[in-house]
Design goal:
heterodimer, A: 327 residues, alpha/beta, Rossmann fold, 7-stranded mixed sheet, 5-stranded mixed sheet, 14 strands, B: 420 residues, alpha+beta, Chloramphenicol Acetyltransferase, 4-stranded antiparallel sheet, 33% helix, globular
Chain lengths: 327, 420
């Protein structure tokens, strides 16, 4: 197996899917000759040409609208929103049209489309380049939302998203792009949507996370181990449909759960995970389910000190986990 | 190093007795975590740690009484959290065992009731394990809780079960009998019962009262027939509506409040500067508990209906028996009502709780043949109200006026008197 970065894994996943299936194409801002602002589509324009790697106007509603139309007509678009923060203008297309298309047509039409959106903070992106959108879109029935945290999952879930018959919002954490490296299985590596993954076994408590926070939780688990606390790390990978049985299983195993995300606290994914645990594993709990999240403030600040204050960090996770372990 | 001092746990409290150390030297303590239980006057209070660190030294032993401000322990402040892990915090699995060895065996009076609130609050996982391994209450009381506030965690139970299994395999049937400690022996004649802090507090208060207050005593006989009959009639609907029993106590307290309103000089305190008349009427209600007596206070009883009083008294009595009264619950009383009548007494000479000026005992309600109007003899429910009062504060005339007020209110009890 080759060691790759997250961004390489994503690019490779798109490349392989485009090679495999001629109906797959990419559309977005600067995805063509420029290769995308993060170089996610680097080289694809040269390889597949301007008809399959389409530079769009700076109009997100248009990108998604075109993708919907293409998908209805049998294509498999991969629409890139340059930053997740910019997705708002396309909300109407995504929520009112894409998410409900299958339902509205009584199952006559599926929309096999992928919306890729680089998300998350900790990159000095400030207000317009740091947001988390998973809870907002996870709330919408008809949408699938994935948020891989490792190169292997990034590639595998991208392939699964392309092949899925319904719209999938594919969230790729900007900070993980080149920070997180890992082995990616050779060949046609597909990771099923809706399956969480135990990234580290443990017995004292469970850390549940996704995206960048997965990496932080794994580092935190390492530090906790040095202090005698055995932490299990569950990577959700898919936000919606969420893997209830994996969540319940780890909660039942350790009896103590800490959910971590950088998205705002109120009605975040942690709240849903905690509710699932309370509904299904209450009798196995040994402590209140806890969460460590970004605060309920309007946006991620630019200032380093304030950005650090906003973001959950390895140290913050360790501290919270110790509080849970000591309960 | 920071010293922990005996705190002033109430306006008039000058000393406190160390009832129980919740931490032992060497233990990590968090800021505001329970450090020591202190008994003042008649209430248990948990004193929180003023700062986070390691308990270095205990300066005052359990059972000892010291004045407010006395240094009772020394805490070594912990270095900021970031540096802590590498330096001083031991690895978590170890302490569970270490604590078991280091902590002293339970002392007298610490027994079953000794567990603090958090310790006895068991999580669902712990409950399930207790069920699964059939852990008895006695065994449970022997499990050292390593969690916050001594909470028994899932791990603690698992460790206990792991240890418990070993002798069982070696010893077979013997295990169960050897695991159970002998039942606590009852008091044996010819021995001395050690004084609990509560016993000491009661002794000192009663002695002080009798030595400084010139007690006078007077009794009134009250015809309770109306009260008995109407209570009987109302008690089912009362229970249905309020969820608690309608006893005689709140009715008597209501009558006492009316009596005190009429004779404010009894709702007062003696001082060298003069007789202090209290604005509020705060009625202490004596509650007997396992090892003594507690007098929680119904504050501003003059603003409550009978049902309001019933609820307040029920709540205080329950919390008194559960050992969950706070300092404010036993403070500020201006007059006390005692109810020895439930035990069949007919004349009770109560001792005043300083700085109050009086205490009223309600004795047993008994049916007696009474000569009523027209020289007829009737069977009536009679009760004696015995008042002890501070003769420095008031004289027999005022005391009698008070008793008369209470008696008239009770004898005039009718369906027109609002319960709610």
């Amino acid at each position: 197996m080759a060691v790759k970065t997250v961004i390489e894994a994503i690019r490779e996943g798109m490349d392989e899917e485009m090679a495999r299936d001629e109906s797959v194409f990419v559309i977005g801002e600067d995805v063509g000759n420029r290769g995308g602002v993060f170089l996610a589509t680097d080289g694809l324009y040269k390889k597949y040409g301007e008809l399959r790697v389409i530079d769009s106007p700076l109009a997100e509603s248009c990108i998604i609208g075109v993708a919907i139309g293409a998908a209805v007509n049998g294509m498999k678009p991969i629409a890139e929103i340059q930053f997740a923060d910019f997705i708002a203008p396309a909300m109407n297309q995504i929520i009112e049209e894409a998410a409900r298309f299958c339902y509205r047509t009584a199952g006559d039409f599926n929309l096999p489309m992928v919306i890729r959106a680089p998300w998350g903070g900790g990159v000095h992106g400030a207000l317009y380049h740091s947001q988390s959108i998973e809870a907002t879109f996870g709330h919408i029935p008809g949408l699938k939302v994935v948020a891989p945290g490792t190169p292997a999952d990034a590639k595998g879930l991208l392939k699964a998203a392309v092949r899925d018959p319904d719209p999938v919002l594919y969230l790729e954490h900007k900070r993980t792009y080149r920070l997180v490296k890992g082995e990616v299985p050779a060949g046609d590596h597909v990771v099923p949507i809706g399956k969480a993954d135990i990234k580290r076994e443990g017995k004292d408590l469970s850390l549940i996370a996704y995206g960048l926070m997965l990496t932080y939780c794994l580092e935190a688990a390492e530090k906790l181990a040095a202090e005698g606390v055995s932490a299990e790390v569950l990577d959700l990978r898919t936000i919606k449909p969420i893997d209830q049985s994996a969540i319940v299983a780890t909660a039942r195993k350790t009896g103590k759960v800490l959910v971590v995300h950088e998205d705002n606290r109120f009605a975040g994914i942690a709240a849903e995970v905690m509710a699932i645990i309370m509904e299904n594993a209450f009798d196995a709990l040994d402590a209140p389910v806890m969460r460590l999240t970004g605060p309920d403030v309007p946006a991620m600040p630019f200032n380093q000190v304030l950005e650090d204050a906003f973001m959950p960090s390895v140290d913050k996770i360790v501290a919270k986990a110790k509080e849970l372990a000591a309960y | 190093m920071a010293s922990v001092k005996m705190p002033q746990l109430g306006e008039s409290i000058t000393e406190g007795t160390i009832s129980k150390w919740l931490k032992q030297p060497g233990d990590q303590v968090k800021k505001y975590e329970g450090l020591v239980e202190v008994i003042t006057d008649k209430v248990n209070a948990e004193v929180p740690a003023p700062l986070a660190g390691i308990l270095k030294e205990i300066k005052v032993k359990e059972g000892t009484t010291v004045t407010v401000g006395t240094e009772i322990a020394v805490i070594e402040e912990s270095v900021p959290a970031t540096a802590a892990p590498s330096k001083q915090s031991p690895t978590p699995p170890a302490p569970a065992g270490a604590v078991t060895q280091d902590s002293p065996s339970p002392t007298l009076g610490e027994g079953r009731g000794g567990g603090s609130d958090t310790r006895t609050r068991l999580s669902p996982a712990v409950r399930a394990l207790i069920e699964e391994h059939r852990i008895s209450d006695v065994e449970l009381s022997r499990i050292e809780g390593s969690g916050i506030g001594g909470r028994i965690s899932k791990k603690d139970v698992e460790d206990f079960v792991a240890k418990r299994v070993q002798p069982a395999t070696a010893n077979g049937e013997q295990r169960q009998t050897s695991a159970l400690p002998a039942a606590p022996p009852g008091p044996t004649p010819g021995t001395t019962i050690p004084l609990t802090p509560m016993r000491r507090a009661i002794a000192s208060n009663m002695t002080k009262s009798k030595q400084t207050i010139p007690h006078a005593w007077t009794v009134a006989e009250v015809d309770m027939t109306n009260v008995v009959r109407l209570r009987q009639k109302a008690k089912d609907s009362f229970k249905l509506r309020e969820g608690i029993d309608l006893t005689f106590v709140p009715i008597i307290v209501k009558a006492v409040v009316e009596g005190l309103k009429a004779v404010p000089v009894l709702n007062a305190s003696w001082s060298e500067q003069g007789v202090v008349l209290h604005k509020d009427i705060n009625i202490g209600v004596a509650v007997s508990v396992d090892d003594g007596l507690i007098v929680p206070v119904v504050h501003q009883a003059d603003r409550m209906s009978i049902s309001g009083l019933a609820k307040a008294i029920d709540d205080l009595a329950q919390r008194a028996r559960a050992g969950k009264l706070g300092i404010p619950d036993v403070q500020g009383g201006t007059f006390t009502v005692n109810n020895p009548g439930t035990f069949g007494t007919i004349l009770s000479y109560s001792i005043i709780a300083p700085p109050q000026a009086g205490i009223l005992a309600m004795d047993a309600i008994v049916k007696r043949a009474i000569v009523v109007e027209g020289d007829a003899i009737a069977v009536r429910s009679m009760m004696n109200l015995c008042l002890s009062f501070d003769h420095r504060v008031l004289d027999g005339v005022s005391a009698a006026r008070f008793l008369q007020g209470v008696r008239r209110w009770l004898e005039g009890f009718s369906e027109q008197v609002p319960l709610y």
